[in-house]
């Protein structure tokens, strides 16, 4: 797009410095380009006129044509209001009321004049009224006024300074008058032809002020397609460049791995695990840097795949790092892998925030000398003092919990050649989100649980069923099992007094089960106290663990077979699924019990029904995306890619598929976008600053 769209917003007629400052602070609108891409989030249907007799209180906003027949000011002082009577062509009456701006309205409202009024109808004693309606005097030539009126996001602060949706609409009208000649086409003729897209100019006009519903739909499709196309184009180009330019160490020796398979692996890998190992091995022997995402549901066996990958690196003289977001998870990985490493004579270390200074000194020396081939840890691994002889592999677990800068700090630990990268997540990512967040990564999925694992039985119970639930807990403990009871809060708070609180819950559980030992774990405890309580539960010294979501990630107690989630309506779907995954780790049948009160919102009911119906993490993630949106799901601060202006990943999967296929085709034929038909694409990308994440932006 031309430099026109980089013009500062204050230079637009009707804006000026004061309004510009507010728009910048409140809506991040700095330039003409930012404003023209501040799309309406809904439209008021001004295409239909109603008679007073057709009105219904359930209608949102309606417009009525009629003549003002009388107006009067009622009441005094602050209770003063203006009431006017509008009579439609059938002679039916609609009362119009204003509680604010009474004097101004009384002056400007003309008696015996035809108006279009637009507002929310309310009924009282069989009569309809409309408070603070929008008014438009009905001139003879405007008898056929009909359109979709845009509604723009604004804020309370902007409204206080009289910048409401209508004022933003006026700014948009002013901008479009001067902008239209400067709008250049940003897609190739081939794409426009193939997907029957409207041109960019028409799309921008009709997304703000649709002439017809058909033109609005065409504009919306065009802008969504373009946005998703440029995201996919950027990701594919990154992938192509990385595979062409970034060399990777070749790991083709596997003697220790062969020994591990033959003599130390005490169980068979699932077919899914074998397939994933094969995909990873293909990357490690290709001479290019591996950049792979490993997705697998809770308990699917990602950690052993990670260890096998670390063994391949060790067999080829390289060091490996496995970084986890919490100490509990790092400890679990370390304990799980240490027995394998010891049996193979491999030096495996652990570095977390609570590692003592003298232990750190030894770890640092062994990493620098190359004596230590593998290390598991937390953010402590990112410290500058941690240096390697030859870091060849970085594995990041629950990678969305780390920022981009944190992860790249790890990659830079080998100045000679970028290490191979494997990022793992047990949070199933919906396909549309994976394509958008991780489109530049190769994706492997472990979609099979280890043999002998039984599906967790999930039920929803109301608080009135508590005695039956507690009896079930006793029966399970008598069978030798253990139980988690999870609460959403640590202490009671006024706003959330209806939700079970941890301290209160802990006391109730101790009273209900005096014959059993109870542990308690929450995020405000000191690490050593938390570890002590966790270890008591792991050793079966306590039968019941009362906890907050601190156990969501990383606790592995195969003997625990019951997960009770109190106030389950307080949790998101992916969180409920993660918590459920804490049980079902052994061969016994496991259960998840979702406890709630009777008062549930529509979304809460959907979440609970989904949990009861399915154990499939990917299906759950798709529903979660529809309920919460991508930003909440992933934390967009770590991605930037999700800076979407008009698309909705929960609803626009078909458009994303089309856009992805189109981007792939374009780059397959013309990787550098040098051919004449891709001139628009190349020019548009070049016109954007290098750090602009969303390539569909105007500037």
Helix and strand layout, with pairings?
Blueprint: H1 16-27, H2 32-36, E1 42-46, E2 49-50, E3 62-74, E4 81-87, E5 93-98, H3 102-108, E6 114-119, E7 121-124, E8 127-131, E9 134-137, E10 147-151, H4 156-160, H5 165-179, H6 189-194, H7 200-208, H8 213-245, H9 255-263, H10 271-284, E11 291-296, H11 302-315, E12 319-323, H12 327-343, E13 348-351, H13 357-369, E14 374-377, E15 391-397, H14 404-411, E16 420-425, H15 431-437, E17 442-446, E18 457-462, H16 466-478, E19 482-486, H17 502-512, E20 518-521, H18 527-538, E21 544-547, E22 560-565, H19 573-580, E23 591-596, H20 602-613, H21 617-628, H22 630-634, H23 653-669, H24 679-687
Parallel strand pairs: 2-3, 5-8, 11-16, 11-17, 12-14, 12-15, 13-14, 15-16, 18-23, 19-21, 19-22, 20-21, 22-23
Antiparallel strand pairs: 1-10, 3-4, 3-6, 4-5, 6-9, 7-8
Keywords: ATP-binding, DNA damage, DNA recombination, DNA repair, DNA-binding, Helicase, Hydrolase, Isomerase, Nucleotide-binding
Domain Helicase ATP-binding: 283-446
Protein name: ATP-dependent DNA helicase RecG
Explain this structure.
The structure is a single chain. The protein has 24 helices and 23 strands. The strands form four sheets. Strands 2, 3, 4, 5, 6, 7, 8 and 9 form an eight-stranded mixed sheet that branches. Helix 7 (about 200-210) crosses helix 8, helix 8 crosses helix 23 and helix 10 packs parallel to helix 11 (about 300-315). It is globular, with a radius of gyration of 31 Å. This is ATP-dependent DNA helicase RecG. One of its GO terms (molecular function) is hydrolase activity. InterPro entries: ATP-dep_DNA_helicase_RecG (IPR004609), DEAD/DEAH_box_helicase_dom (IPR011545), Helicase_ATP-bd (IPR014001), Helicase_C-like (IPR001650), NA-bd_OB-fold (IPR012340), P-loop_NTPase (IPR027417), RecG/Mfd (IPR047112), RecG_dom3_C (IPR045562).
């Amino acid at each position: 797009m031309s430099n026109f769209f980089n013009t500062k917003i204050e230079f637009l007629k009707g804006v000026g410095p004061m309004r510009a400052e507010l728009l910048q602070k409140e809506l991040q609108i700095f330039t003409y380009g930012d404003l023209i891409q501040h799309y309406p989030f809904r439209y008021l249907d001004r295409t239909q006129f109603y008679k007073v007799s057709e009105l219904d209180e359930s209608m949102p906003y309606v417009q009525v044509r009629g003549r003002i027949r009388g107006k009067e000011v009622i009441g005094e002082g602050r209770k003063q209001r203006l009431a006017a009577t509008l009579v439609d062509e059938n002679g039916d009456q609609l009362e119009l009321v204003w509680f604010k701006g009474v004097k101004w309205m009384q002056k400007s409202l003309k008696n015996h004049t035809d108006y279009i009024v637009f507002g929310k109808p309310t009924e009282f004693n069989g009569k309809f009224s409309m408070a603070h309606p929008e008014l438009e005097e009905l001139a003879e030539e405007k008898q056929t006024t009909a359109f979709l009126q845009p509604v723009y996001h604004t804020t309370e602060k902007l409204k206080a300074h009289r910048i409401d949706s209508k004022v933003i609409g006026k700014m948009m009208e002013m901008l479009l008058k001067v902008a239209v000649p400067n709008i250049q086409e940003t897609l190739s003729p081939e794409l426009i032809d193939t997907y029957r897209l409207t041109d960019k100019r028409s799309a921008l006009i009709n997304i703000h002020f649709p002439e017809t519903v058909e033109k609005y739909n065409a504009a919306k499709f065009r802008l969504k397609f373009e946005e998703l196309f440029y995201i996919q184009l950027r990701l594919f180009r990154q992938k192509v460049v990385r595979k062409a330019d970034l060399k990777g160490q070749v790991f083709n020796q596997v003697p220790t791995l062969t020994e591990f398979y033959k003599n130390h692996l005490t169980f068979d890998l699932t077919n899914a695990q074998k397939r994933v190992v094969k995909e990873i091995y293909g990357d490690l022997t290709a001479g290019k840097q591996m950049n792979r995402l490993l997705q697998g549901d809770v308990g699917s066996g990602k950690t052993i795949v990670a260890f096998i990958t670390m063994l391949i690196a060790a067999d080829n003289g390289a060091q490996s790092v496995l970084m986890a977001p919490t100490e509990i998870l790092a400890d679990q990985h370390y304990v799980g892998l240490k027995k394998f490493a010891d049996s193979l004579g491999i030096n495996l270390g652990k570095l977390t925030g609570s590692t003592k200074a003298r232990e750190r000194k030894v770890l640092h020396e062994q990493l620098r000398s190359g004596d230590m081939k593998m290390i598991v840890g937390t953010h402590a691994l990112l410290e500058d003092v941690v240096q390697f002889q030859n870091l060849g592999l970085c594995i990041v677990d629950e990678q969305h919990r780390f920022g981009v800068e944190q992860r790249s700090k790890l990659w830079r630990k080998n100045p000679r050649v970028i290490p191979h990268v494997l990022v793992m997540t047990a949070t199933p990512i919906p396909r549309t989100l994976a394509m958008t967040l991780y489109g530049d990564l190769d994706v492997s999925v472990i979609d099979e649980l280890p043999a002998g694992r039984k599906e967790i039985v999930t039920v929803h119970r109301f608080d009135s069923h508590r005695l039956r639930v507690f009896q079930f807990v006793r029966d399970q403990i008598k069978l030798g099992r253990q139980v988690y009871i999870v609460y959403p809060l640590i202490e009671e708070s006024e706003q959330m007094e209806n939700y079970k609180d941890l301290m209160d819950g802990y006391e109730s559980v101790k009273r209900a089960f005096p014959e059993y030992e109870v542990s308690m774990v929450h995020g405000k405890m000191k690490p050593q106290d938390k570890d002590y309580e966790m270890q008591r539960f792991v050793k079966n010294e306590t039968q019941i663990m009362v906890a907050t979501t601190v156990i969501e990630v990383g606790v592995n107690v195969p003997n625990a077979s019951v997960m009770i989630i109190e106030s389950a309506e307080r949790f998101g779907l992916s969180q409920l699924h993660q918590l459920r995954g804490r049980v079902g780790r052994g061969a016994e049948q496991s259960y998840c019990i979702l406890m709630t009160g009777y008062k549930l919102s529509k979304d809460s009911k959907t979440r609970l029904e989904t949990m009861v119906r399915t154990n499939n993490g990917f299906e759950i993630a798709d529903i979660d995306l529809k309920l919460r949106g991508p930003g909440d799901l992933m934390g967009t601060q770590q991605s930037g890619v999700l800076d979407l202006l008009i698309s909705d990943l929960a609803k626009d999967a078909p458009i994303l598929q089309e856009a992805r296929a189109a981007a792939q085709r374009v780059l397959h034929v013309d990787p550098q976008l040098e051919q004449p038909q891709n001139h628009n694409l190349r020019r548009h990308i070049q016109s954007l600053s290098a750090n602009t994440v969303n390539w569909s932006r105007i500037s």
